């Protein structure tokens, strides 16, 4: 083989941490075990691979460079498949993680272990426990571009492990920063647009010929003069204005009931003592159909006097934070609430991507809102 291969725990995890590199001895073993020195040297500069030259200013070997080196190996040794040397980290359609692999990657991980043990690569301490959120946020903004590039090759779990500040009660602030970087000028759209949109949706709700919806609305107790309470109630019943998604799973598909649709978008409970039970029921349902459990806003108590759990205490803010978490982490919407989140994405945040799922009811509801708006 042209490249030596070693199996390590780090390879199995597919993770890459941020390292600070110090000067070392140029006689350190090369990452490449040469069979044809003259040919290989036309592809890879050995000095370039040495850590003190290859990791300038705390950077790493990029996915693109790994791919390029694997392809260039194939250009000289035509019988060698590039995938033997490098396959990047991927996520399957079922969300299962497939770690980075190949001879280049295996040797890279093994060699970094040697460099660290020799003191050539030193771990960088990113966040001290006592560091204030203000200071963390300052550093977070400075590193946004690089972090998001590296995150493409990581799982969400690895990302949270690498940056412990995300697990703090105020960690959502950091994801909010990333969302604002990805989608400029979208930061406050929910707060500025929802009052008007919810008023139009409320009129559509009252006209809807749905027996369950009519029963639910007749049992609702809220102050009609309290606009905030009405806005929250519209959030609760928004899923009933949209189609129920067919969730393709094994061993059988799942088409959520209307009540499941309501609980899948924003979970409303009357008593805090019911919280753990509701969360466990939600997790059990998703385990049954082997779909990921995504974060959702949880509202406890009556409209106007409720608590919202996404580490915040305002319902609209909780929905806004959840939406930004999905996009900052490139996570899918909860399967049973996908139409509702897609509606907010298009109608409120005005975000449109080529990967957006197709739900005709979303486009119809947006058209209905425009029609109601023209009447006023």
From TrEMBL:
Ranges for region Disordered: 1-25
Designated name of the protein: Uncharacterized protein
């Amino acid at each position: 083989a042209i490249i030596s291969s070693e199996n390590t725990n780090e390879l199995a995890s597919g993770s890459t941490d941020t390292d600070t590199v110090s000067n070392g001895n140029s006689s350190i073993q090369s990452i490449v075990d040469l069979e044809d020195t003259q040919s290989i040297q036309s592809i890879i500069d050995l000095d370039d691979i040495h850590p003190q030259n290859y990791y300038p200013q705390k950077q790493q070997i990029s996915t693109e460079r790994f791919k390029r080196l694997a392809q260039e190996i194939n250009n000289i040794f035509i019988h060698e498949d590039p995938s033997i040397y490098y396959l990047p980290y991927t996520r399957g359609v079922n969300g299962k993680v497939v770690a980075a692999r190949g001879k280049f990657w295996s040797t890279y991980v093994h060699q970094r272990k040697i460099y660290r043990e020799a003191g050539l690569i030193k771990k960088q301490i990113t966040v001290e426990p006592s560091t204030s959120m203000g200071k963390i946020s300052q550093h977070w903004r400075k590193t946004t571009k690089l972090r998001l590039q590296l995150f493409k090759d990581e799982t969400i779990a690895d990302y949270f492990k690498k940056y412990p500040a995300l697990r703090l009660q105020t960690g959502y602030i950091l994801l909010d920063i990333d969302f604002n970087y990805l989608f400029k000028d979208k930061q406050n759209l929910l707060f500025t647009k929802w009052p008007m949109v919810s008023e139009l949706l409320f009129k559509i709700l009252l006209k809807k010929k749905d027996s369950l919806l009519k029963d639910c609305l007749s049992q609702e107790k809220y102050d009609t003069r309290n606009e905030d309470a009405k806005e929250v109630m519209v959030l609760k019943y928004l899923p009933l204005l949209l189609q129920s998604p067919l969730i393709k799973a094994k061993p059988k598909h799942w088409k959520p009931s209307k009540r499941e649709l309501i609980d899948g978008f924003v979970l409303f409970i009357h008593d805090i003592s019911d919280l753990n039970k509701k969360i466990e029921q939600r997790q059990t349902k998703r385990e049954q159909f082997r779909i990921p459990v995504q974060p959702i806003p949880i509202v406890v108590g009556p409209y106007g006097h409720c608590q919202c759990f996404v580490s915040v205490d305002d319902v609209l803010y909780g929905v806004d934070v959840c939406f930004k978490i999905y996009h900052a982490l490139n996570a899918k919407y909860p399967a049973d609430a996908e139409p509702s989140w897609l509606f907010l994405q298009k109608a409120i945040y005005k975000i449109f991507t080529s990967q957006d799922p197709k739900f005709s009811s979303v486009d119809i509801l947006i058209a209905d809102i425009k029609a109601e708006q023209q009447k006023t």
